[in-house]
Amino acid sequence: MLRFSTAGESHGKGLIAFIEGIPAGLKVDIEEINSELARRQRGFGRGQRMKIETDTAEIISGVRHKRTLGSPITLFIENKDFQNWIPAMSPILDEVSKNSLTNPRPGHADLAGLMKYGVKDFRDILERASARETAAKVAIGAVCKIFLKEFGINVRSFILQIGNVTAKIKSFDGEKIWCDTESSVVRCPDKAAEKEMIKLIEKAASNGDTLGGKLAILVSNVVAGLGSHTQWDLKLDGKLAQSLIAIQAFKSVEFGEGTNFAELPGSLAHDEIFHDKKNGFYRKTNHAGGIEGGMTNGEPIFITCVLKPIPSLVRPLRSVDIFTKKPVKAEAVRSDICVVPAAGIVAEAAVSIEIAKALIEQFGPVCMKDIKNNYNLYVKRIKNI
Predict the structure, then answer these.
(1) Could you tell me the residue ranges of all domains in the chain?
(2) Structure confidence by residue, pLDDT tens digits, 177-216
(3) Phi, psi for 213 (deg, rounded to 5)
(4) What residues contact 345, with CB distance under 8 A and at least 6 apart?
(5) Distance between CA atoms of residues 371 and 360, nearest Å
(6) Among 90, 152, 271, 361, which has the minimal tally of Cβ within 10 Å of its Cβ?
(7) Please, is 369 exposed, middle or buried when counting C-beta atoms within 10 Å of its C-beta (0-12, 13-18, 19+)?
(8) Rounded Cα distance, 354 and 141, in Å
(9) Alpha-carbon distance 178 to 272, whole Å?
(10) Which helix (H) or strand (E) element contains residue 217?
(11) 306, exposed or middle or buried, with CB in 10 Å at 0-12, 13-18, 19+?
């Protein structure tokens, strides 16, 4: 069983990523992990923090001579900005700063966390609630991506919308869309929309505002039958939805047609089934987004997610001081203007983790040779149905 966790605060010494259950014998190149971390840091609309950090991972355990051992893998990502925050964030020094944060930001975890944990300074909350944590998740997702490539599975993302600017994308076929996505500063393959998105981000920056948007994730070459229909907590779409909605600022997750299903009749909503000797069972449409009854159906998994604008504003919203109870402006914390392009990389990581988990649960041995043998036998069997 694959499981993972992360630790660390936004301005602490660093982030720790822990992953257990990756089979022994998987070749892991640290440069592939660092490449994913670099992708997360890019994107038009990122803030000053990304000019300070150059995220790279250090493998602490679980890998020897670039091969996984089957034991827990631990990764460490240093926070270079920690040197500027030692008095405020040191785990061993007594408190020396009296500059408590007491004006909670609307839309953030500040006030709810302060109420829950009984603290008097919501820095105790924001340091862990911060999206800085997603760097650790991307590192874990990178290991899972390496694993998925062994089975020909690709997890990719692109941006559909920023603010009120929506991309026009007619097809997801071919490599051009992915080349155009990776070469775009907002990770949008529609060049006309890209220009308008940049203008919108620049306008938001000049107004001291932030922007949200919508992104898509596509998982290709997924075998049918991952997940299960037998219990609510075994359904793959449920696991994917939970993993994605848990990412900071994500507010909705849709599969396939998503909310469009509300206006479609059944005759147009479902994907008719065909068969030939070359392809076996297949569909000509993918309204379901590749998942039916909690299981993959052999078509690409297609998911869309909406992010709210991040709640840290240069021109802050109205709030209330937690001690005086008087009206104040919320704390103005250094932040990005638009994180939607970077959020696509985090979404890829979350999805990669769940797909890897589903593969390991279904084909289960603890070494790569055995899991590949089981996988190949399964593929051969379903092709002969």
Answers:
(1) 3-383
(2) 999 999 999 999 999 999 999 999 999 999 999 999 999 9
(3) 175, -160
(4) 36, 39, 40, 138, 157
(5) 8
(6) 152
(7) exposed
(8) 9
(9) 28
(10) strand 213-220
(11) middle
CATH architecture of the domain with residue range 3-383: 4-Layer Sandwich (3.60)
Structure tokens given for 162 = 């920023």
Q: What is the dihedral of CA 55, 58, 64, 67, to 10 degrees?
A: -20
Neighbours of 132 (CB within 10 A): 23
Task: Work out the percent of the chain whose per-residue pLDDT is above 70.
Answer: 97
What distances in angstroms separate CA 46 from CA 19, 83, 361, one per listed residue? 28, 21, 37
Q: Which helix (H) or strand (E) holds 32?
A: helix 30-41
For the residues 39-48, what does the mean pLDDT come to?
A: 83
Of residues 107, 104, 109, 103, the one with CA closest to residue 125: 109
What is the Cα–Cα distance from 244 to 215, expressed in whole angstroms? 12
pTM for this structure? 0.94
Strand (E) or helix (H) holding 294 = none
- Both ends of the chain: CA-CA distance in Å? 28
> Could you identify the residue written with the tokens 């990523």?
17
- Closest among 131, 124, 97, 96 to 110, alpha carbons compared: 124
Residue type, 54: T
Please state, in angstroms and as integers, the Cα–Cα distance from residue 186 to each residue in 84, 167, 194, 252, following that order.
30, 11, 7, 20
Q: Cα–chain-centroid distance for residue 150?
A: 21
- The angle, 0 to 180 degrees and rounded to 10, between the axes of the packed helices 340-363 and 236-245 is 150
pLDDT digits (tens, 9 = 90+) for 130-185: 999 999 999 999 999 999 999 999 999 999 999 999 999 877 777 889 999 999 99
Looking at the DSSP bridge assignments, the partners of residue 275 are 281
Q: Retrieve residue 31's tokens.
A: 């440069």
Interior angle at CA 41, CA 78 and CA 343, nearest 5: 115
